[in-house]
Design brief:
mainly alpha, flat, two-stranded antiparallel ribbon, about 75% helix
């Protein structure tokens, strides 16, 4: 790089410094500070006491940690493939050249702009026994059973998964829809001339073109699902009997209810490394397939 180009690049530094400073203070510093906290026995009352890796040893032997990690992993397995397929199907529907195109796009996306508190309130209102909308509809079509959606383990998982899908599918649908609109029309026109059916167009043109964004959606969904917390806390409280309690809720309880911030930081970094490993694997597989 010659001197003139170097000087030209240096002119951008004053404009980048405010963002860099904010990034260091609010992102980089908390990462290392949290890692330091995980090595201490600490609450907000007494002085921090260095315990080394004792918090990590306690975490490995903590059955509640493994149970909540499994609950979170189960949520990921239930939501990720369903979310990808549902978002793909809705994007195909929203991409149809019909008069209802705008209606489809708006109705699919609007739930994603609502807050988690609103979504959770609607879920509780609809799923409550005896007077809830869902049970009322079931009874109106001749089903006399009275499901307790949030008191039964299986039904609680169904409720949380369905509510999460309805709430967040719109964002992923938009990602797929954007990629659908980027596919050249010439590919479809050429295939029609060759006599390709709609199914063959979808299989050999649409799907291959959507693979890159599909990988992104899968990665984003895995990361988001492993960080699930608010809707479960508000809808089921982690019940019944802790059956739906995710890892972040357990971290929250340890840190802010039991006031054990050091151990909470330890479990937070365990989750961080799990997500880091999954991200690296996904990105590595993507690069290998691209080559």
């Amino acid at each position: 790089m010659n001197k003139k180009a170097w000087i030209q690049d240096m002119k951008a530094i004053p404009f980048l410094l405010p963002f860099l400073l904010a990034y260091l203070i609010f992102t980089i510093f908390p990462i290392f500070k949290g890692l330091e906290m995980s090595l201490y026995d600490w609450n907000l009352v007494r002085k921090m006491e260095f315990v080394g890796l004792e918090n990590y040893a306690e975490m490995v032997q903590d059955p509640n940690f493994w149970q909540t990690l499994w609950n979170t992993t189960l949520f990921v397995m239930l939501t990720t493939p369903t979310m990808v397929l549902l978002a793909l199907g809705l994007s195909l529907l929203a991409n149809l050249n019909t008069k209802l195109k705008t209606f489809f796009r708006g109705s699919f996306f609007i739930p994603s702009i609502l807050s988690v508190a609103v979504i959770s309130f609607l879920a509780i209102f609809m799923l409550q026994p005896y007077t809830g909308l869902v049970n009322t509809v079931l009874q109106s079509i001749g089903i006399d059973a009275e499901p307790f959606w949030m008191a039964d383990k299986g039904l609680a998982w169904v409720s949380i998964v369905v509510v999460t899908l309805w709430w967040s599918v719109g964002f992923n649908m938009i990602l797929f829809l954007t990629s659908l609109q980027d596919i050249p029309d010439a590919l479809y026109e050429a295939s029609e001339i060759d006599g390709a059916s709609r199914w063959k167009q979808f299989r050999y043109i649409t799907l291959p073109q959507l693979i890159p964004i599909g990988r992104v959606v899968i990665l984003l969904q895995i990361l988001a699902s492993y960080k699930v917390f608010a809707q479960i806390l508000l809808i089921t409280g982690g019940g019944p009997g802790g059956a739906t309690r995710p890892l972040i809720q357990y971290i929250y309880e340890i840190g802010f209810t039991q006031n054990n911030l050091g151990y909470a930081a330890t479990m937070s970094y365990a989750l961080f490394f799990i997500l880091l490993i999954l991200s690296v694997i996904q990105l590595k597989n993507q690069r290998m397939e691209e080559k």
